[in-house]
Amino acid sequence: xxxxxxxxxxxxxxxxxxxxxxxxxxxxxxxxxxxxxxxxxxxxxxxxxxxxxxxxxxxxxxxxxxxxxxxxxxxxxxxxxxxxxxxxxxxxxxxxxxxxxxxxxxxxxxxxxxxxxxxxxxxxxxxxxxxxxxxxxxxxxxxxxxxxxxxxxxxxxxxxxxxxxxxxx
Length: 169
Fold this sequence. Notes:
Distance between the termini: 28 Å
Strand content: under 5%
Oligomer: single chain
Order of helices and strands: HHHHH
Largest sheet: none
Helix content: 55-70%
Number of domains: 1
Shape: elongated
Radius of gyration: 18 Å
């Protein structure tokens, strides 16, 4: 049994993911990868302050090692993770509020509220992880939160595609 493609070249399962869903999926996935670099380099220990990183918003040494700092520089990895988190948070807020205002079904609106709740908890856990200098219970819960955020985004996409299928018939 192979994967079949529909006319657009995508698997039928992916056919109903709109641009907002795709943007959120890529954003959350990239943020999770960035979190892996945070954990792998112990970057969370370097700047136990928030909202500033040390005494500045952009840390000293940001991209000091050139492009390799993206994967090896603790300051760069930490700053990039924060900026990705802020960007994903803003996207989730934007798409959730839009969905809550215009969603046709209670399920779609609930999925947006779920995303808002999860991103709020995840943002607070991320700040808490940094402020507690990566206390294991907080950091581990933050990693679980990443999976919950991805799940909430997938549920939101699924709820919207179900709504599209029902309204298109």
